[in-house]
Every structure is written in structure tokens, then in C-alpha cells.
């Protein structure tokens, strides 16, 4: 969503999207919004478009026309082990993400707390994160970009078998469930709706989109994506600030 479909004000042209959705619906084509965001937040963004499907929390949540298909969560024991390991990476601020609630520490950096509340609909500050282990879908780790980049490899090593660190933006690492990435979610949709991967067209701008790029029949990177992301795609669309997703659909799918 951010950096791909949404512009730099976290918005989109509703009138244009209404025209695109009407044309897609006529042709029997589904539109799926896939994001590290919670599904509940994306539903608010698309509340005027009930035909939009959702992949939330980088793959752990799936909703088809408002009907939940999947909401995979970590076991409480795994959550406790991950939190203990994350304590070793004190340069990062941490958020524990559930389906509807996100928990942060009461003593979290105020700027981080403000950003979390701008990003997630329901953020709760608590004294100790280890008390909140039920229904956890993923974890966010946020810090200085260079520090977070350097943190990826040791995180991978420390969390082997527990969680997969995935770069989800500048200075942001999501810890997702092993095997529960966006490609896995597309696979579930493929089975449910009998749509082969070869008929899927995906858009993305970040490292957390690469699994979709490998799964789908055609992958399109945004012009604003990093060079490595563009190199992994089959084609490049206009930037998110130019409604690149809608423009590409209009010229390559609907013509």
C-alpha cells in the first residue's frame, strides 16, 4: 500500500479507482490490497469499495469481500521467546501487532508512539509487552535506517525457526511467521478462488513484496522502488505519486 498504491499523503484518487474497479468487476478480475498494515486499517481506507479483497500483516491476514479466510497467529510461547530475543536489539523500538490491537511499551520513545498511532487504528501502551501474547500476528521493529539494515542478518540468525525478519520500509523490520508471507497468502487465495498464479499481476516497491514477485505470473515494480526491487520485476509502473498502479491497470489490463 504505502509507496505502491497510496500517494505520499497516504491517499488515492477515489473517483479514478471507482472507474477502475467497475471495469475490473465487469471483466471478473479481483483487486487485492496487500500490506504490512492490519486489515482493519485497510478496510477503512477502502470502505467505499466493498469488492476489494485484503492481505494484511504481510500475509498473516486474508479477507475476501469482507469474509475472513485466515488470521494466523504466533503461539504465546513463541511470542515470549521472540520478545526475549528482541531485548538484545535495544536500538530498535518494538510493537506487538494483533489483528485489531497493537501494543507498545509505556516508556517507548514519544516519536515512535506517535508514528504507531498514526499508522495503526488501535495502539495501547502497556508497562510490559510480555503480558500480551495472545492473538499476535507480527512484530514491528523500528529505528535508524542504517542500524536496522545492519540488524537484519543477526536477527535472521537469532530468530531461526521462530520468525522471519522482513524489511518493510526505511528503518522498519517486520517479524513475520515462517511461511506466512504475502506469497503464501496469494497461494491461499489461488486455491480458494481457483485462480492460477500465472493469472496474477502484482505490484510492489519493497523487499516484503519480493515473495509475491516470485509467485505471481507478472510482477510490476513502482518507479520509486529501489533498484534491486525494480530489477526483480517484469515491468515498471509510474511512481506511487502518479497513481502508478491505476495507470498500469488502465493501460495494460483494461485496454
From TrEMBL:
Stored Pfam families: Hydrolase_3
GO MF annotation terms: magnesium ion binding; phosphatase activity
Gene3D superfamilies: 3.30.1240.10, HAD superfamily/HAD-like
GO CC term (a single one): cytosol
PANTHER family: 5-AMINO-6-(5-PHOSPHO-D-RIBITYLAMINO)URACIL PHOSPHATASE YBJI-RELATED, PHOSPHOSERINE PHOSPHATASE
Name listed for the protein in its UniProt record: YwpJ
